[in-house]
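Minutes, structural biology subgroup

Action item carried over from last meeting: produce the structure token record for Polysaccharide deacetylase family protein (Polycladomyces zharkentensis). EB confirmed the sequence was re-checked against the source entry. Recorded below for completeness.
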Amino acid sequence: MVLLGAGCSGQETAKSAPASKPHVDHQSQHTVQHQASASGAKPQSKQPASPASGAQSVKQPERGALPDSKHSRADTRTNHEKSSTRLSEQKPSAASEPLIFFKGSGGKKVVALTFDDGPDTYYTNQVLNILKKEGVHATFFVTGKNAQAHPEMIRRILQEGHVLGNHSWNHPDLTRLTQSQAVAQIERTNTVIFKLTGMRMRLFRPPYGKLNDQLKQRFHQMGYTIVNWSVDTRDWAGTPVAKIMRYVQHQTGPGGIILQHSAGAPGHLDNTIKALPRIIKYLKSHGYEIVTIPELLDKPAYMGIPHK
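Output recorded by EB:
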């Protein structure tokens, strides 16, 4: 089991940290290009549209969507004995509650390291070894397909004090699916994690960071905390270590959420492994405390387990 800690709450819209050069919208680039890395293919660089415009162009996902299925609305009562992982339908707790968190409040000099797409047994093990050596904890947004294939890695993530988040079943662009297909992607992954750990994840990161307004509202009403990022290392694109470090240095500020990855074909994320110790050293030397997403946002990671 995993012990969680408290922290500060987040803001909805991301703000760029001071930079010595014009800001590049790395989140949109990740949205467009990371589709290639999900299958191990060599990504190609394209100039993204601004997230603020709402116009994001992506290629059709290479993985097949789950079959459409009907889902009844869950009872609003929490029932921990049910094997179903649907979170209770609930209204937003406050009118000011953001639909998506891009960073924490910025009130404290804290940052969160996050890793998408895992687990696997090659890169996830290396990431965990580094985190253990450095004495820091991170949040892993896992796909259900990989979690089912590598249950031992899910157990190691939790045993070493890290946090699990939902990253869909097989990493499709959810905006290209029907609403019921998109919900099924999330619930199927939660079912796998529940069977492995007895816990239902509440943290959710959409593949490519993409959700339309309807899905934002839907997942928010279901009780999910939707988490994107404010710092994109672009590690999935084979970015050189020195450039990864520049992204971290230019974009990181108090409350920052740093995006990295922990699964891929051998050779694909070698620079992630090389850069991670340097990232941690940089953050510590500049007075940052490295925390998990629940600590950063003061949100529970799992349904029915109080956040401490």
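Discussion: The first helix runs from residue 26 to 38.
Next step: EB to file the record with the rest of the batch.
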